[in-house]
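Predicting structure from sequence has reshaped protein science. With that in mind, we have picked out one protein's residues alongside their backbone shape tokens:
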Amino acid sequence: MQKLDEYRICIVCHGSGQVKEFVPMGMGCTREMLNDCTHCDDGLVRKDGARKEEPNTNATQSKSIADDQSEPAYGITRETDNEEEEWLKIEVQLPGVEESDQISAGIVNMKTLELDATPVTVLQSNPRWRTSYSLQLELPSYVDDEDMECVFDRNEAVLRIRVPVVVPE
């Protein structure tokens, strides 16, 4: 058992590691969201003030299958449409998946993409093909989960997701 003498409970989130944030949705409406507390590390603050090093995040993220065998390769980009609305475009590679009904994808709390896929065909000769894929991806911006668009390309085994970015007013 580890002693926690050099830590104290965060006074901002009261040790939960999450804080409530109200995101304006327009027309005077707001949506209550839970975000990670930026003042602590999972509800605890070191008494000497030191913090964990944060990884460098960019607007474009990517991950290869070689990094983690259970997560599929993915890429995130931003695009602007004709009406000047900003969208996130997410492409997820799912080798072995043949039909869209083998995929379950959704946006949770306007901030996290959750995806599960189970290929019907698994080829042992190709190590890139897995028996299942699971992805929980924190998106770089809040998005409108109700306007999410998904298209599965069977030829490339790629799921293409477009979702509009919510711009705080």
